[in-house]
Amino acid sequence: MRSLNEIINDPTTNLIDVREPGEVAEVSIAGATNIPMGDVPDNIERIKEMKGDVVVFCRSGARSENVKQFLKQNGIEATNAGGYADVQVHLM
Predict the structure, then answer these.
(1) Contact call for residues 5 and 90 (beta carbons, < 8 A)
(2) In the chain, which stretches have pLDDT less than 50?
(3) Does residue 18 sit in helix, strand or coil?
(4) Distance in angstroms (rounded) separating the CA atoms of residues 51 and 5
């Protein structure tokens, strides 16, 4: 099983930031796609079409855990990386 570090740094991984646009404007992760938690259901087909692993994150990890569970219920395996600071620690 690959480590979170390996998954996050894999160029085929899809990093999805589920924070609101105002939060992303304050601090963001380069290359991450912003799909706010409330917009995830409307973007489920878009996420299903993504190639590679799906990693979700937010500010603290709570919203991204909810999104991870929602995605699982819809047939998409995702990893909750926690908060954006947790993701930044892994970026090379």
Answers:
(1) yes
(2) none
(3) coil
(4) 18
To the nearest 10°, report the CA torsion of 53, 5, 1, 68: -50
Lookup: tokens for 9: 């740094």
Q: SS in 3 state form for 34-60?
A: ECCHHHCHHHHHHHHCCCCCEEEEECC
Instruction: Give residue 58's pLDDT.
Output: 98
Residue 40 CA, distance from chain mean position: 11
In one-letter notation, the amino acid at residue 10 is D
Going 23 to 21 to 32 to 58, the CA torsion angle's sign is positive
Alpha-carbon distances, residue 59 vs 25, 29, 83 (angstroms): 13, 12, 4
Please give the model's pTM, rounded to 2 decimal places: 0.96
